[in-house]
Amino acid sequence: MQKNSISHVVLIYLTINASIMPSIAFSQSVQSMEFALSSQVNEVRVVGRYAYCASSDGLTILDIQDPKSPVLVSHLYSPGAHLAIDISGNYAYLAADDFGLYVIDISNPFKPVVVGSYDTPGRAYDVFVAGFFIYIADEWEGLQVIDISKPASPTLVAKYSISDCDFTGIFVSNNYVYVADSKAGLRIVNLTDPTNPFASAIFGTPDRTQSVFIYETYAYVADGEGGLLIIDVTDQGSPKLMASYDTPGFSCSVAVDDAIVYIADGTGLPVIDVEDPADPISASRCFLPGWANNVCIVGDYAYVADSWAGLQIINVADEYNPTLIGKYSPTK
Fold it and tell me: 109, 167, 214, 294: most buried by Cβ count inside 10 Å?
């Protein structure tokens, strides 16, 4: 079907359903709504009753007050392949690949507005907000540190890069940034002074490190074909491998909650008990229809960015029996 035909179909759908659909940023063009109905979900963050999705073509906001039936609230189209998202206060920060960083005012979820941007020199692959700074994994250009005290005017304050790097994931904790470098492994960078980051240590991994999550004194690393790695970072200058766990798929993303690890590994969501970090034990696995690329845990629910299959919502109150209860498919 040609683009114009799709636009006509969407326009008819919106007209027929105007009385029963929520307000979906009608100030946007029909073209933007077309994207909202056809894009893939790459990453998700949940705050309150809303799920904020980094979609392939922009920001998609869903009402998840009823997890069994998420509802599209709005979709803001912006250029670039939106790979990651973080939320702080009334702002969403999108890593937009070749287009760098977008700062979006989400104080009104029905009408999100781009208020600022910063074009990074590489490909903005992941973002993490801490205080008045946002840290960007910018692939071959390394780590970019941006001052966002004025959201409309993000300003570069520092950067950290080395030759032949590929920074794809990032997590900030206690004055350190933990970076997933798909070419080298886990890098630990000292941020005591955010304007002067410097290397603390590197831990080589067996495959292509994708992302990292810090819980207590451990780094939980999604290492692609290398599965899950659990690394003791009590001494940030001398990380030590505690254990590994070979997941069935390709470990893309990891989240930890109450000594339970959730891994988005492409084909689904393995759930691992790490009460003893030196002895990870499989608790369960939930298969998913798309490509599980990212997972976010809030309360009793796992929210999985499942690429072309959209957002999957899984009840994990019983980690040994996760249950898929809701979904939002961009193509429905």
Answer: 167
What are residue 13's phi and psi, to 5 degrees?
A: -60, -45
> What sign does the dihedral 65-67-72-75 (CA atoms) show?
positive
Whether the pLDDT of residue 281 is over 50: the answer is yes
* pLDDT tens, residue by residue, 204-233: 999 999 999 999 999 999 999 999 999 999
d(CA 92, CA 103) in angstroms, rounded, equals 6
Question: Contact 169/183 with Cβ under 8 angstroms?
Answer: no
Give the residue from 121, 126, 117 showing the smallest Cα distance to 167: 126
Mention every residue, 6+ apart, whose C-beta is less than 8 A from residue 13: none
CB 190 within 8 A of CB 202: no
Distance CA 255, CA 264 (A): 9
d(CA 74, CA 52): 10
Q: Length of the chain in residues, anyone?
A: 332
- Kind and range of the H or E run holding 32: helix 30-36
Residue 106: strand, helix, or coil = coil
The answer, yes or no, to whether residue 122 has pLDDT greater than 90, is yes
CATH fold of 40-328 reads Methylamine Dehydrogenase; Chain H (2.130.10)
> Nearest to residue 122, comparing CAs of 149, 88, 83?
83
User: How is the chain split into domains, by residue range?
Assistant: 40-328
Asked if pLDDT for residue 9 goes beyond 80, the answer is: no
The amino acid present at 192, given as its one-letter code, is: T
Residue 34 main-chain phi, psi, to 5 deg: -60, -45
What is the average per-residue pLDDT within 93-98?
96
Kindly tell me if the per-residue pLDDT of 8 is higher than 90.
no
Select from 294, 238, 245 the least CA-distant residue to 265: 294
Among 94, 174, 180, smallest CA distance to 137 is for: 180
Residue that wins the pLDDT comparison between 30 and 301: 301
